Amino acid sequence: MAINYQVRRFFPLALLAACALAVAWVVSFGTLPKADFAFANGDQIQTVDPSKATGAPEGRIINALFEGLLRQLPLEQPPDATGNVPLKPATRGVADSYSVSEDGLVYTFSIRETATWSNGRRVTADDFVWSWRRTLHPETGSKYSYQLYYIRGAQAYNESRPEVDQAVEVELDDRPAHPSGQEQLFPRGSILRGILREVRNVADPAENGPAGNAETAATDASTADRPIYVVEIKPQKDGRVLWNQPGQRRVFSSRPGGSATSEGDRVERIRHLLPDFERTVRIRATDARTLVVTLNNRTPFFPDLVAFYPLYPVCRECIEEHGSPGWTLPQNIVTNGPYQLQFRRIRDRVRLRKSPRYWDAANVDLETIDAMAVKSETTSLNMFMNGQLDWATTVPNPVIPQLKKRTDFLSAPMLTVYFYRLNVARPPLDNARVREALNLAIDKRRIVEQVTSAGQQPARSFVPPGLRGYQSAFCGEYDPQRARTLLAEAGFPNGTGIPKIQIVYNTSEAHRDIAQVISEDWNVNLGVQTELRNLEWGTFLDTLSQGDYMVARSGWIGDYPDPNTFLDMFVTGGANNETNWSNTRYDDLIQTAQVETDAEVRMGVLQQAEQLLMQELPIIPIYFYVSINMVNPRIEGFSANIQDIHPLHILRRKK
Predict the structure, then answer these.
(1) Cα end-to-end span (Å), the chain
(2) Is the pLDDT of residue 17 over 80?
(3) What architecture does CATH give domain 12-83+324-408+632-653?
């Protein structure tokens, strides 16, 4: 999961200014009834759509509003020597039980009878089928759709890879208009189903007008990736497709305008032609309470995946009625988790209220929760000290030594890495020697000792330590001399001729301070000039996804306790890759690891993949995180853990 941790330098004057800001926070938006629990959630959230969200601020809210088949919860036991409380095996969600076939491929989940949407309708297995289909639909654009690729047929559906003589679903270009005037993905247009018989990838001049016409040439160029499909559409009866019956030959394309083929067939315009979901993707609702999922290969961490928010269900009728993003508005949204969305004030807070329809509402103590959009760590700490917050999710670095002595300070190692992405499509970052030189020129120990100061460890690998059975591959120690040699070999002796490198980061004094140290290291050790650019969270995310950067700060928290959660995002075209790096050997290793059934061999394959990543270095690991939390002593149920998971619904006020 992408993270937006922000740490701010502390100075006495800043502290006084933050006190004033904390007071201003109270009066600037008028008087509100005090919530039972309030916490600093970082920058304002971008969405509460489980299929669209990517960051930790969004994840905290979504985990309160929605619930998946299973949940990740900390064990109710004292912390270990590192301050860490282990997590339970994924358990206790919408599913009241599940079973796994002997070969480890088939998971059968039983939906609890008491699971209910906030509109009063029961949660069913079909809700998961529809929601996962929505996440996989290519037009949804979910950055976490690949988390479903472990399911048989899911990747082919998401990547729109139909094959000749395969069952397909054809969406016609007849989507209903929405009252908002916005074009909506759901509800979709009319869906026809049949067998793909032919794909024509080369434009036929007869289909586009006389040869030599400039307009025709432009049309050919713009539609080169929009083939013509010949499909045998199967008849339907009582909502069932009669696959064994002969069908009707029809011709489709997503190209603009109507036309006819050289054979005289009318070409019907479509939105999408995808592998038929029901016959391709092995997600089945055998009845209202039973969901059966078939995997490609044994995947021991699959229970952890279904406890991750991109796999949470959403309410179909809510989305079809209000469209996207309208369905996420407080007055429209329907949720199935312990909380409902009461209101959202931009640059202020999200207020949650307890859902009376949640299946375990009797054990949810906090009636109202405020997730405050507080970016400044100094402001956050002072709001905590003043009683305006019950949980500060991070604090200014310089005061950590004093805060560690307090009983309300909780910290533990995390399965999280702070790193820099390098856009390998931007020269000179397309040169692996330059990337390695930049890595070796950074004094990472100075960063953790003089900037972050909270017990973080310099990162010599991308995968954090502590994963059972896995030995990380290393990217080298601080070595300025070797870095200079590599830069010279790349054609830039002493930095001569190398263009200025821009470092972008989301607004935070901590990110700025780290960037300044790295900028100084690159300048002193390599003669490389840099430019620093800070961006607000939403703009920063857009900049990364569009590839409009040279170097960008990043953070990644493991979505489940396995090295794969760190490594699989860098496959070619991965939605969270965002570096333009591509390596077929790496892709093959990740794919091999997915099908390997021997645990020890699998870990070895993943290590080979990380070793390749550390040789190519489209990313530079900087340090491994520790969690930093200040928690009001009147709150019970909060514990530090390796994934920094803190379910709001298990927190309780002391009696």
Answers:
(1) 35
(2) no
(3) 3-Layer(aba) Sandwich (3.40)
